[in-house]
Design brief:
The complex is a heterodimer of chains A (370) and B (368). Chain A contains eleven helices and 17 strands. Chain A is of the alpha/beta class and 370 residues long. Chain A has a six-stranded parallel β-sheet, with helices on both faces. Chain A has a three-stranded antiparallel β-sheet with strand order 3-2-7, with no helix packed on it. With 368 residues, chain B is an alpha/beta fold. Chain B contains eleven helices and 15 strands. In chain B, the strands form five sheets. A six-stranded parallel β-sheet of chain B has the order 10-9-8-11-14-15, with helices on both faces. Chain B has a three-stranded antiparallel β-sheet with strand order 3-2-7, with no helix packed on it. In chain B, strands 1-6 form a two-stranded antiparallel ribbon. Chain B is globular, with a radius of gyration of 22 Å. Classes of the chains: A alpha/beta (370), B alpha/beta (368). The interface between A and B is large, with 51 and 50 residues.
Chain lengths: 370, 368
Amino acid sequence: MSLYLSPFSKPDFSASPLAEGPFIALDEAPCDGVAPEAFYLTTHLPTWYHCPDLGWTLPRRSSLNCVAVKNSKGIEVVELRDLRRGDLVVCGSLTDGSEGIFVCSDGFPPSVSLLRGRSAESSSSADYELLFDLMRHERATGGSILWVLGPSVVFDYDTRISLSRLAHEGYVNGLLAGNALATHDLEGGYLDTALGQNIYTQQSVPLGHYNHLDLLNEVRRRGSTKSFIEEGHVKDGFIKTLYELNIPIVLAGSIRDDGPLPEVHGPVSQSLTAMKELTDKATLIICLATMLHSVATVNLASSYRVTSEGAIVPLFLYSIDVTENVNNKIAAARDHTAVRTLVTNVQDFVVNVQRGLHAREKDVSREVTS
Amino acid sequence: MKFHMAAYNHPDFSTPFFQNAPDAQLVAVEEDGVSPANYHALSIFPEYFKIKGSWILATESRMDTVCVADTTPGAEKVHIVEFRNLKKGDLVVVGRSEDGSEGIYLYTEGFLEKKSAEAEADAFAFRSGRSRETAYSIDYDYLYEVLRHEQKNRGSVTWVLGAALSLDEQSRAALEALIRGGFVNALICGTALAAFDLERATFGSSWGQKIFTREQNSTLNYYRTINAVRRAGSCEAFVKTGRPKDGIIKACVDCNVPFVIAGTIRDRLLLPDAWDDVYQAQDAMRHVCRRTSTIVMASTILFTVATGNMTPSYNEFDNVIRPVYMYTVDIQEFAVNKLSDRGTLTATSIVTNAQDFVVNIARALTDF
């Protein structure tokens, strides 16, 4: 795990000019959900705040496009919409320490950064190897692997099975998705179809276009996906597996949804709060084939975390999409830090990852140690 | 190409088959938001329901929803309702055959014109496999005619737009010209389009840059803009402070063009006018779509699919049934073809950069 062992080079806060640099400037939120005009907008990178009582302080995680609030606990990274009137918000725009804010963009070794210009022709073997190492490390050390999935992964027979296997093997600790992923996966488990076509042969079944609507209506009749599964209506599938293994799922609503399933969050503010609970726990994030959810997640996720031993380590995020534009957006949002992008069909990706990890498990000579 | 409004012909309901067909079977909703089993789901095509002996055409339709009948004698009506909006006691049409034998008739030939030379090129023919190599001149000319017709005849043109259009100076100005020229009757968008537009109007920057050099630079001005609008209370109140100098939202406010801003999970901070709840957003969008006669959707897969699914392919305006013209524009073939994959067959799609598209339209229709 060379990437984890490489130390983060912290700036020297005991030396000039940071040691005697100014403290943060604070101003009150004028009303709920509104920041003072000169608020500082946070980044996902490690950022220290110079507080009179605590010295230079690094929050355990950060997030893009939030504000930093000073309270008795120290510095808290808070969503603008969650500000309460009177909250003390860090103000400023310079990040070199001259306003008490220091963003460290080059603390990680260069290997943590993504090479630019990844395309379908780029070799991805090394990215797969790193991913396998990271996944095995996180599983071995009680980390949390968070998956962000678009619906295409449950339209395909092999992919859907591979996802469940990965969950059973301990490589899935949380899911962020939308109404469509859950609906179509449950449609597969309920009626063997995806949007009315047999999930394996893709033969259309009679009146199959009703299937996803019937699924939604029947789940809504029961009031929850859990009771629908417990009543035995779902033979198989990823959602069923996650329910059986008690793995948390956050389903965020979108304006495209039919239904929706009872568990789907309608307000986007509620979705984001629930999603962030999982991104804040995550030690590895894998985003597949959903521009909406991938971009939303990359905006929420810190690019670093502070371990219980106090080490600053990268929080890797993988983005897999057949559209290079999606990967480029993700990489740009993360300033190419602690991010890897693969341009491929996610069906192949999931099947390959499951088989690759499986092969490694048999090969003890490659066992990772915690 | 000369524009001509396709005429609609009802089926001949005087034949014995239709006369003898049973009324549609109705079952009452037992619990809000849940339909009786075996409900009939709507398609994008004209559909008729036999209620108390008369065949009633569903207007303001929407695919993947159900039909609720109002059986008030002498005032029989049908309403097309989303599952989540069903109320206890609503009478839902059940039955899954569409040939009239269960009092439900789906009609695909209402707009077909017999032996018309233009029938082949009619916007209501199925088109498949549109790509970057397709020739679009004829589609542009037809669209100009449609937009002129709507402007002259007080139609309702809804534009559904992605953020790329407010990131480019020319396309932003082109849209402003189209709004001021009366070619935009409603706008559906996300916080990003509106906030990038207001950022440019207020700070003179996009992504914090005066000149566009990188896809992403600083979001500080973007968030400061949203913060300032939240402080002001609404986009309209913010425009009236005089801080935004130009742009799409200012033109909408100046010209009283309604806009619906729908929230998405990509929005960390919403404009005060935006709908936080996506299902309330859908209801607000459908409110606009119910009276839309032409819809142009550019550069946003999410909003295009969402709006495409809730916009009927036909509707009734001043007691006349006419097509609803639908255009989808995107640089990705995948995006424009997605609507036809989903069964929304009546859209004309154009594969291009949406910024160029709106600049072209504005140059053809206005002094821009």
